[in-house]
Amino acid sequence: HLKTSHLPPSSGVCRNFVSLPALDLDRLREARVVVDKAVKMHKVFSIQGRYPVIREGLRARGWVERCMVYSKRRVRRHQSSRNRTDSNYAMCSDRDDGELEALHNVMSRLVWNEMVYFYWTNRRKAINTKNLHKEQITNHFSKAGNLTTKTGLCLNLRKLHWFDSADPDTFFPRCYRLAALDERHAFIDDYRRTACTSLLKYIVEKDQYVQGERISHTIQAVKGMTFSHISIYYSALKVCEDFLQSLEHSDIDTNLETQQTPAQEWAEFLDSYYLVVHGGAEIDSSDYLVIHCKAMLQRMKIVNPQLEIEGIHNIWIIKPGAKSRGRGIKCANRLDQILDLVKGDPKLIKENKWVVQKYLERPFLIHDTKFDVRQWFLVTDWNPLTVWFYKKCYLRFSTQPYTLDSMDSSVHLCNNSIQKSLRPLLQRHRSIPVDNMWSVDQFKTFLCTKDREAQWDTVVVPGMKRALIYALQTAQDLIESRKNTFELYGADFMLDRDLHPWLLEINSSPTMAPSTPVTAHLCAAVQEDTLRVVLDRRVKRTANTGDFQLIYKKVRNSFPFVMLYVYLNGDNDGVLQMSFFIFRQLCWRLHHTVRTNHDCLL
């Protein structure tokens, strides 16, 4: 018979532990054997949230579930009609599959007092990793917010030069924290400078074809309005020239007061810019002016890798730095609008959580519709940094055709949580499904019709891998590395017209909801393959890892021993290089600490 000492009090268990169907004694004996074996092999797990694929995958591997324990407050929220005297209750599954599920619930009773060796939760704070034993496995790293918040990613990628020679501006749109005073000033300077280059591009492109359409067709001219103040173009050229000289340090002997443009002049310039580019006022230009604009844009392109994707409307996307699923995100193309949006939420300003990022105005479109790419990756260690890339991904479409005449979320945000409640335009191309999702195979088929299928493997995938590795390298010193910990992330990318991927953000606990046929298949597959990597490879290093591919594993460095080795071998240059590396890391950590304290004071 069952040992009742393993059973929690009846008043402290969920409905699945109450009124169980009668079970055959032979089945109960079999369950006891399974439980004894699982306990002996340390195969007891707990799950928080709805993860049926993980639950079934673990059970198939001989694991037995111990129900997750919840607080009394949550008990009241979920079962307010029941009077409870316990401080906790447990919940295994809200399925009701009769005898089989009842059997699993009985097995869960039997392991009630056993240690959990595998935790899968949907929130990082659900488990305090400091209280875990070293052999216990969990699916979240501590302090991963340095990677998965918009503010954290924005800050970290600025220190990429400490780890690699790559330029973050080649894969991550420029980003600023508006609550930090120095960064707000830097953003204002960037916005003004971008207005200047946008104006020059407008002059050059106004009679040229842009993705099959003339710019004069996409910008409606205001009847009866002609703009002939040629001085604004020379002002734009001067701002670009001054910026280039500052990069070359040619302005070192220039008086800063004479170099700065007064705020009033900037206000007048931006009004003129809005009138021409946003308002569509007719302009007077000459071949001489066009030649000078082209020459300046060629020079600016060398120092600004994002010049091509910037477009001419100077659109920026404003994001609350620690929210997900597209909540609170807005697009704006006027400087005063952007700054006013940030002023509207004092709490976010105080917590330094507003970021503004340059919007990709010229993305790659599918049937005139914008989309982004959700790409999964798995980190199984931070020291040494070990990264797995998932070969499958999916596309998320917006419901409305792409246009820059509207800043509405239905046009510019592709988050499923936003688009699923909107109705697609009737005129939208029939190959884009109502659920707004494509698999990567469908996208490859579309690229094949454009004779660009090869670029998925030669441009898109290598670009996404590089961007993720760069982002992870910059965060590895800030995230607490713990053995027997892993984390599955979801990165969002956009593709420009050359199919070059641009990293937008990285999400922890990416949704695994089977909300569409595409996600129903892929989300189940990525969860099963995650278990293959983190569990099956422990038993057999050559185990099948599904569609996960190991793309990066850094060699672990132990600085004292490495320095001793190179010293004993007479490699003085090696000692010098290692010392410089350590000094560089210490300088960065000191800089990060001072910068954080400075921002808190602001």
UniProtKB/TrEMBL annotation:
GO terms under biological process: cilium assembly; cilium movement
Catalysed reaction, written as an equation: L-glutamyl-[protein] + glycine + ATP = glycyl-L-glutamyl-[protein] + ADP + phosphate + H(+)
Alphabetical list of SUPFAM superfamilies matching this protein: Glutathione synthetase ATP-binding domain-like
Keywords: ATP-binding, Cell projection, Cilium, Cytoplasm, Cytoskeleton, Flagellum, Ligase, Nucleotide-binding
Keyword Membrane applies: no
Molecular function GO terms recorded: ATP binding; protein-glycine ligase activity, initiating
Subcellular location: Cytoplasm, Cytoskeleton, Flagellum axoneme
Keyword Ion transport: no
Main location as per UniProt: cytoplasm
GO cellular component, one term: axoneme
Protein name stated in the entry: Tubulin monoglycylase TTLL3-like
Organism: Haplochromis burtoni (Burton's mouthbrooder)
Lineage start: Eukaryota, Metazoa, Chordata, Craniata, Vertebrata
